Amino acid sequence: MAINKHALIRYKVLDNCFRNPYRRYFIQDLIEEIEINLREIDPKSKGISRRQVFEDLHFMESPEGWNIELVKSKVGKRVYYRYSDISFSINSMPLNELEIEQLHSALHILSHFRGLPQFDWIQELILKLRNGVIAPKNNPTIIDFDSNQYLKGIENLGIIYNSIFYKKVVEIDYQPFGNTEAYKMYIHPYYLKQYNNRWFVFGFNPAVNKADWNLALDRITSISESDQKYIESPQINWSEYFEDIIGVTKPIDQIPEEITLIFNGKTCNYIESKPIHGSQKSYWIGNEQLKVTLKIIINYEFERLLLSYSDSVTIIGPTTLKKIIKKRLQNALNSN
User: Fold this and answer.
1) CA 25 from centroid of its chain's CA atoms
2) Does residue 233 contact residue 254 with C-beta atoms inside 8 Å?
3) pTM
4) What is the pLDDT of residue 285?
5) Which residues, other chains included, contact 95 with Cβ-Cβ below 8 Å and sequence gap of 6+?
6) Angle at 223 between CA 204 and CA 186, to 5 degrees
7) pLDDT in tens, 90-120
8) Which residues contact 115 (CB under 8 A, 6 or more apart)?
9) Which residue, 285, 290, 193, 292, is CA-closest to 248?
10) 219 SS3 class
11) Chain segment 228-242, per-residue pLDDT in tens
12) Rounded to 5°, angle at Cα 150 from 183 and 101
């Protein structure tokens, strides 16, 4: 039996009734008490049936519920219900099987936020679950996320998050791809963003006087707080900042361009069901080709995305984009 919001309310109402030593609760009384509470949260509630109440009693008495012990006393032909021990309450019981399963499922989802300071407790609780403090069934996983807990640099996520929250400058040793050694820099962090399973921090870089400088967390070799005075973020709307781009790279002084592509084969259905960008407009050309228009800033991530479709896409325009992709393909062919 799944425990939903209404079911939990019913169980708690029944629990209170069974603990009351001053009143006899017959089945109709239990129904009325439940309906009063259900109407408080849902005025449109249609009430509850006798059958549902009996099913609730059976569940509460079962091992899957709380193993409650009820005394069922007769008065004439009617029966009233009370706990054999009125000091008992389901609220003081350990978690039941269904609650454990639900908690385990919720923790599985929350575990993908590990690394952020307000979720530090998750790892400890997951270990307790696995070690049997509130051990779940050995059920198979039924949901998975595109995340990588072994990602290099993930340990820096919590430090940078705190630096943004508490407005602290950080001193970083940073080693970009292609550099044999790291170099030291300072960043006034403003925003964290994940793209393509990598984390990036955006902030003010005083060395180049740029407020939207971005760094990949997996290229940070060391990080520590600095005592420099923190410079507040300029009025950058980060929700809108990424509207015109794919990924995280926003070239200086570039504006969105009208881009026209034609996809063919099975890729058409994929592109139509999973748009490349929010600006995408799609038009079918017969049954085998899909014409797509976008209005975005051309950046490195978009170029890489187009290259991933190789012979499934034709670039109609602009000419600058055609030249960029053509050059990249030629370089690939000419490489040893």
Assistant:
1) 45
2) no
3) 0.60
4) 93
5) 103, 134
6) 25
7) 887 666 666 666 666 666 666 666 555 555 5
8) 154, 155, 157, 158
9) 193
10) helix
11) 999 998 888 888 899
12) 145
- Given a contact cutoff of 8 angstroms between Cβ atoms, the answer to whether 52 and 42 are in contact is no
Q: How far is CA 254 from CA 77, 82, 295, 296, 328, in A?
A: 84, 74, 12, 10, 21
Nearest by Cα to 216 from 241, 180, 247, 255? 247
Q: What is the pLDDT of residue 197?
A: 80
The 3-state secondary structure of 154-209 reads HHHHHHHHHHHHHCCCEEEEECCCCCCCCEEEEEEEEEEEEECCEEEEEEEECCCC
Alpha helices in 62-156 (DSSP H): 97-110, 120-130
C-alpha 333/C-alpha 336 separation (Å) is 8
Token duo for residue 214: 């971005």
Side-chain half-sphere of 110: how many Cα atoms within 13 Å?
16
CA distances (Å), 260 to each of 10, 253, 257, 286, in order? 58, 22, 10, 17
